[in-house]
Specification:
mainly beta; eight-stranded mixed sheet
Length: 417
């Protein structure tokens, strides 16, 4: 029997399990975990937030494939306050070592994390994936009870094109076009872009783009890292070289803007064209691990009055609480003083796969936000590898980390031994 779960708009009513023989023999039911996120439909050069439709997800226990649980919910606006920016929230039930007849109703958990793979995701019967095209593992245990996990999803737009004009029916329906009439070369808003160009550029065919419009709402930077800043601006009658941009130096202590690698000081203003920006002239650096989100003011014009807006800068963190988590995150920013022997390099991914070396003579040293194995031919670290039989470890041996003080994380390949 599949478990059907619907999002409750208000509060959950308390459930009392008393007095019945059925309740006594059902076993211990633990709390739930909740998954929530955006669902976006992709087509042309744009994505559209879906807040209606039907979501199905199937979770499979990687240690026990018979433990498969399917959950379903309707897409709808979800979120705190008046701005409900997410598409769904669904609770997935957990149980401590459920009996065989209940393994299609509850994910079986114990004191140690168990990996569950999201095997199948569908929106209105159409397969969906994570934004990077992958499917996701989650390690759930007692410690996961009542936790929330953000899982954003992407679903391809239907390719049905009734009138054969290269505009899919779903896109024409959203924007009020006639899906039975070939109108790809029409120009509803008289801005010089055909309906087909609007579809390919990710713009609204009902809104003129003769004045430049900022289409980027947020950018992502890795924690303690640097990311190039790329903005998508819609303008049907100006080239990228004709669109002017202004950026002010960040007043935030946890973030810096860099113009061609040089920090833009607070209060200073950098001017550039959109083509300059697209060539990689501007980047953003994250400095403070305690800060997770910033606002970036930006102004632009194509010869007229300057228009201003803000772009959200989102910090990608090594958390198992969202759909972009790392399986291992060894951070060079948290190592300690130069020359200090390294006994434990803490895994910040949340998966507790710390690299370690208990024997002093084999310990590498810390050198400029990196782990230096070059001082001794025998220096190496171990970390528990979930892919190996319990009790075995992966060896990181004879490796000199090439990580500068400006880098975010040390990335390496490993050999199993």
């Amino acid at each position: 029997m599949k478990t059907i779960l619907f999002l409750l708009a208000a509060s959950l009513l308390p459930c009392l399990m008393i007095g019945s023989a059925g309740a006594q023999t059902a076993g211990f039911t633990d709390s739930n975990v909740q998954f929530y996120g955006e669902v976006r439909q992709v087509g042309g050069a744009q994505t559209i937030l879906l807040q209606s439709g039907h979501l199905e997800m199937t979770f499979v226990n990687q240690k026990d494939p018979t433990n498969r649980v399917a959950v379903e919910t309707e897409l709808r606006p979800v979120g705190a306050g008046t701005a409900k920016v997410y598409s769904y929230a669904v609770k997935v039930p957990l149980a401590y070592l459920p009996e065989a007849p209940r393994k299609d109703e509850f994910l079986a958990i114990g004191s140690e994390p168990t990996d569950f793979r999201i095997e199948e995701i569908k929106i209105d019967g159409v397969p969906a994936t994570l934004p990077d095209g992958s499917k996701e593992f989650y390690g759930l245990s007692f410690a996961s009870r009542s936790e929330d996990y953000q899982l954003d999803l992407i679903v391809e737009g239907s390719s049905t094109d009734t009138d054969g004009d290269e505009l899919p029916d779903w896109w024409e329906d959203i924007h009020g076009l006639d899906s039975s009439l070939a109108d790809a070369h029409g120009d509803l808003d008289s801005d010089g872009w055909t309906n087909l160009q609007e579809f390919r550029f990710g713009s609204d065919p009902n809104v003129s783009n003769r004045d430049p419009q900022l289409a980027t709402a947020e950018v992502v930077v890795p924690e303690s890292g640097v990311a190039g800043l790329y903005l998508h601006i819609l303008d049907s009658d100006s080239t990228a070289a004709e669109i002017n941009l202004e950026f002010s130096g960040s007043q935030e202590t946890g973030m810096e803007l860099l113009v061609d690698g040089v920090v833009l000081l607070g209060g200073a203003v950098a001017q550039m064209t959109l083509s300059d920006l697209q060539s990689g002239l501007l980047s953003v650096a994250h400095l403070d691990q305690s800060q997770r989100e910033f606002t970036l003011p930006v102004s632009w014009n194509d010869g007229g009055d300057m228009v201003s807006a803000e772009v959200a800068v989102i910090v990608m963190t090594p958390s198992t609480g969202d759909g972009n988590d790392a399986s291992l995150w060894l951070d060079g920013k948290n190592l300690g003083d130069n020359g200090t022997p390294l006994a434990v390099w803490t895994d910040r991914s949340g998966n507790s796969r710390n690299a370690s070396q208990p024997t002093a003579e084999y310990q590498p040293t810390i050198n400029d936000d990196a782990v230096d194995f070059s001082a001794s031919d025998s220096a190496h670290l171990f970390f528990a590898d979930a892919a190996l039989v319990s009790g075995n470890h992966t060896v990181l041996a004879s490796y000199k980390a090439a990580v500068s003080s400006d880098s975010a994380q040390t990335i390496f390949s490993t050999n199993r031994g």
